[in-house]
Amino acid sequence: WDCRNIRRSPLLGAIRYDPSWRQYVFHPEPGCKWSSGCLRDLRDFIGQLEIARRDHARKVKETVLKGEQP
Predict the structure, then answer these.
(1) pLDDT tens-digit map of 36-61
(2) Sign (positive/negative) of CA torsion 2, 5, 11, 14?
(3) 3-class SS letters over 31-68
(4) Which stretch of DSSP H or E encloses residue 20?
(5) I need a surface site. Which of 2, 6, 46, 53 has the fewest CB within 10 A?
(6) What is the end-to-end Cα distance of the chain in Å, rounded?
(7) Which long-range contacts does 56-65 make (Cβ < 8 Å, 24+ apart)?
């Protein structure tokens, strides 16, 4: 996921899944400044991605355990 300013469109950073950390991480662009509100929004969005990823993994596991194709 790319993160951009809503007023302008320069790239602020990117959210990517990091398999070694087993979670999503944020990669900021150099020189970006973040307010506490922006950081909170970023944290909340990454939290939503983590929940969606866990839900998907659980559904795939349940499907496989039933002997069905994921």
Answers:
(1) 999 999 999 999 999 999 998 888 88
(2) negative
(3) CCCCCHHHHHHHHHHHHHHHHHHHHHHHHHHHHHHCCC
(4) none
(5) 6
(6) 24
(7) none
